[in-house]
Amino acid sequence: MSGYPEAPVGGNDDLPNDVERLAEAAVAWMSQDPDAETRAELGSLLESVGSSDPDAVAELRSRFGERLAFGTAGLRGELAAGPNRMNRVLVGQAAAGLAAFLVERAHPGTRPSIVIGYDGRKNSRVFATDTAEILAGAGVRAVLLPRLLPTPLVAFAVRDLGVSAGVMVTASHNPPRDNGYKVYLGDADEGSQIVPPADAEIAAHILRVAETVALPDVPRSPDYEIADESVVERYVTATAGLASAPSGTGTDGGDGIGAPLSVVYTAMHGVGWETFARVLDAAGFPRPALVAQQIAPDAAFPTVSFPNPEEPGALDLSYEAARAAHADLIVANDPDADRLAVAIPDEREAEGYRRLTGNEVGQLLGWQAAVAAAARPGGAAGATLACSIVSSPALGVVAAAYGLGWVETLTGFKWVSRAPGLVFGYEEALGYLVNPETVRDKDGISAAIAFLSLARELAASGRTIADRLDEFSERFGHYGSAQISLRVTDLSEIDRVMTRLRSSPPSDIGGLPVERIDDLNRADGAVPASDVLRIVLPGARVMVRPSGTEPKLKIYLDAWSTRGGLGERHDAVVEVLQKLEGGMRDRIS
């Protein structure tokens, strides 16, 4: 089929029929694989399968028994050979399917176009170049970003360049062996990630390619463009402009420029620093102290086992650097810089610092956005704050206080970014959209600039982020959140738990009475149907849903209080969260 060498299955006639079939599929896969590394490791696997190695047989079934699904999150998985892994064959098929989709939906007489970006993970540049060549070979105008860059640059470039679509090759904060493929749409979608029905339409084209065309027969062309550096410069200018816009915190009435603020920054071995540094310079912020071991892109992620700022241990080097610098603030991006983590000094913590939850950062940035929107000419009419359904309901209280709309969406920025009249959106997993006129996706760099602006203004009047959190609790009520993640090896266990909660709904959780249970599988028009349960209790809420990317059941706990002083509110919320956690663990055990 392609001239690539084939590997024997081992000559074992005693293999089960399904294994023989999968082995034949693996040999066919090898014949179209342009990557010497994955061809070699697949050949070795087939040799072991031929020797009836049970681990090899299980691995073959894992790789070839199903296909990595293309959905609203695009593709994401471990790097290895086979249709259930990330590799050049799978990416080539995805690119050809995406090309067919873009050509099909293009207006008559017009040529579709796409911008393609990539981060510093293994094979990211290879996958991006393959995509550019295949899209160009299909007659699509393909523009490759000039070098490895953060994910928000692709969302920005889709609108900035006026193209039909965008692709970002990244696995964001997934483990080091993973990579992925995110798709954005232009035109009326304004650079947002794909949503139904586009995802299913693209997936159908990909499957057709996989079933009917060998990858070497997919047309390719070297006639793709390399984007000019000016697209990065325009992103830098637009993002730096957030710092000069009124933050509206009401702390001192000034802009806070010149206030001393000591900051530590980590890029988590990702691609954020070069772009973030340019934005800081353009915005007039001093350069932060750096976590030197994590500042350069490194696909091996040598200092973290899981490059996600939410994971235990991921910020240990940042805490060490912050203690040495007596820093007021730690700012961290994940490897593709679409997420932001923030930590502040806290003597009660062993590290001397406490990472703020995504809800705490979202509340503060949402408050900023609400004040700024209310101060606009014409007031807040038509302006909306948005968050995912599993994020804290605190943002809705802020919106009501300033006369703004409030929208809760399904999880994922593909939904948050589409809220009408959006001025700010977030979800609790450290994702924030602070500048919807520039980027219609979460953006850890623009969020960092907005947060630094707030911190700088507070510092100018002798205040801290901790003080601002207290102000929030005093004005709007104290809100707290926690999570439970139940990891399973058998996905049917998640179905059993969800079925049990639906068929035998609890009347109380941890001794707290249940007021009602909303089953979001039954769409009510507010959000599309989704496998989520919302359990409402007095001053509290529990959200239960299967993870969309991992074999986990995720439970989100929220509690709030407006009674008494700050200390009483805090203690009441802590007590309720403890009861909810204990009660839900009993329910899912």
Automatic annotation (TrEMBL):
Domain of life according to the entry: Bacteria
Domain Alpha-D-phosphohexomutase alpha/beta/alpha intervals: 68-208, 259-347, 375-472
Cofactor entry: Mg(2+)
Alpha-D-phosphohexomutase C-terminal domain mapped to chain residues: 522-560
SUPFAM superfamilies the record matches: Phosphoglucomutase, C-terminal domain (SSF55957), Phosphoglucomutase, first 3 domains (SSF53738)
Family under the similarity heading: Belongs to the phosphohexose mutase family.
Stored PROSITE patterns: PGM_PMM
GO BP of this protein: carbohydrate metabolic process; purine ribonucleoside salvage
A GO molecular-function annotation: phosphopentomutase activity
UniProt name for this protein: Phosphomannomutase
InterPro entries: A-D-PHexomutase_a/b/a-I, A-D-PHexomutase_a/b/a-I/II/III, A-D-PHexomutase_a/b/a-II, A-D-PHexomutase_a/b/a-III, A-D-PHexomutase_C, A-D-PHexomutase_C_sf, A-D-PHexomutase_CS, Alpha-D-phosphohexomutase_SF
Keyword entries, A-Z: Isomerase, Magnesium, Metal-binding, Phosphoprotein
